[in-house]
Amino acid sequence: MAVVSNKSDADIIRERMREIRIRLPQQVLSAKQDVKQLSDWKFYVRSYPAILLPLVSLAAFALIPKGKKLNAANRSSMTDNSSTKHAKTEQVAQRSFIAGVGSAVAGIALRSATSFALSHASGVIGELASRRSPRPTNSFDKNTLAEESS
User: Fold this and answer.
1) Residue 19 has pLDDT above 90, yes or no
2) Best CA proximity match to 87, nearest among 64, 66, 70, 65
């Protein structure tokens, strides 16, 4: 480690350490917010909706099981009247269930879309308002530091 040769070098080191002490809490807070943002899945949904919506749709399509198809042997066994009535009743019940699930999903999607649109709009309005109002200046200034040390 080099030995400080004159007083001005020591002052420079002190100023540099003061700068670091001032900036360090802000940098730590910024890093903490960045980590929180990177681990938040909602951030990616808000940032990349055009990419994630088709991907999620494809995943849901792949994960949902397909209905059973009736082969020729099963169709021929359902020739009597009671079997046909039972199949129709089962089909109506299945359609009703699908309609109920679909309406529930649509309601949730509508509420989520409305919430997302409102939060996005309030963010945009807040950002526009902050751009118009004068921002406070940073209390740390190199010129101020130089004046203090003189």
Assistant:
1) yes
2) 70
Q: In this predicted structure, what is the pLDDT of residue 29?
A: 92
Instruction: Report residue 101 as tokens.
Output: 């699930």
What interhelical angle do 142-149 and 7-38 show, nearest 10?
A: 150
Structure tokens at 123: 């963010």
Helix (H) / strand (E) containing 123: helix 81-132
**Residue with tokens 């359902």, as numbered in its chain:** 78
H-assigned helices in 39-80: 41-47, 49-63, 72-77
d(CA 74, CA 78): 7
Degrees (nearest 5) of the Cα angle 62, 71, 92? 70
CA-CA distance, 78 to 85, in Å (whole number)?
10
**Number of alpha carbons in the 13 Å side-chain half-sphere of residue 125:** 6
Q: Is the pLDDT of residue 11 over 70?
A: yes
Eight-class DSSP state of 3: P
Q: How many angstroms separate the CA atoms of 38 and 55, rounded?
A: 19
pLDDT of 6 above 80: no
